[in-house]
Structures are given as structure tokens and as C-alpha cells.
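This part of the workshop introduces the protein records we will be handling. Getting from the letters to the C-alpha cells is the skill we practise here. The record below serves as our worked example for the rest of this section.

…
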Amino acid sequence: MPEVTISGLIEGGKATSGPPFGPAMGPLGVNVSAIINEINEKTKAFEGLKIPVKVIIDPLSKSHRIEIGSPPTSAIILRELGIPKGAKTKDEIAGNITLEQAKKVAESKKLQLYGNTIEDRVKQVLGTCKSMNITCEGVSAVEIIGRLKSGDIKL
């Protein structure tokens, strides 16, 4: 019998035996409680953020492994700014991020973002800010991206 993969998006440190994991793991005969505790231990550093988690189970041996993904860039930005969500309308500004905060977010997502330099990764973070209507240093994220590209701003 092939391995079974169960995926879900859970808040860091708050997985439960309810959906998505509990009902899917129960019929496989594994110790659901122990796996949930392991997920919570591995994700507690991401408390307050939604984290993609995969549990891969071998139904024959009852062995398992847990793969923890990285929270979405938007979730890290929201946490960094201490705001609940991005703008509701295109005319609303949801918040303002500093270049240092954008750099911090880019560093935390280093393995998931494309680009060889910190500037490239910061530009990607600022692209996410643009879609959330979050300004950077009091101006549009697009303007800061342009200034990074032109070399006016160095990180």
C-alpha cells in the first residue's frame, strides 16, 4: 500500500485532532494524538500564523513524517506590522512597512523566495505589499522597487 499524504493549513502550535488531520489519520490506525502533538511542537514558533503542514504516513508500518512549510509572505508581513489583514479596497492603505522590516521578512523567507540577492528578495516582499496596499517608507511599494532596481536605494 502506498504512502498516504494528508495536507492542511493550520495555525502554528494549534493543530487539533479535528479536521484536516484527525479524521484522515484515524482510519490509518496511527497514534493521532502523538502526531498532533509533534505537529504542534514543530509549529509553535509560528504561533498566530497559518502554516502549511503535510503528514506522510506509511499505512503498513504506521510510521510517519511531518513536513512543515513556510507561512505565506503576506502572513509574515501582517504579523510584522501587527495588522489583521490587507486593504479591503484599492483606495485604502492597510499599513506602512519600513525597508528594515521588508528585509527581515525577506530573510525569513530566504529559502522560498527567488533571487540571489537580498535586493531581489526584498523586491518580491514589496510586490506582496503592493497587492495588499501596504506602503513602504511612506510611499508606494512600486516606487521603492523602482528605486532598488535603479540603485538609488542600497540594502
Residues 118-131 form the longest helix (14 residues). The helical segments are 21-25, 32-43, 73-81, 99-108, 118-131, 141-150. The chain has six helices and five strands. Residues 73-150 form a domain with the Arc Repressor Mutant, subunit A fold (CATH 1.10.10.250).
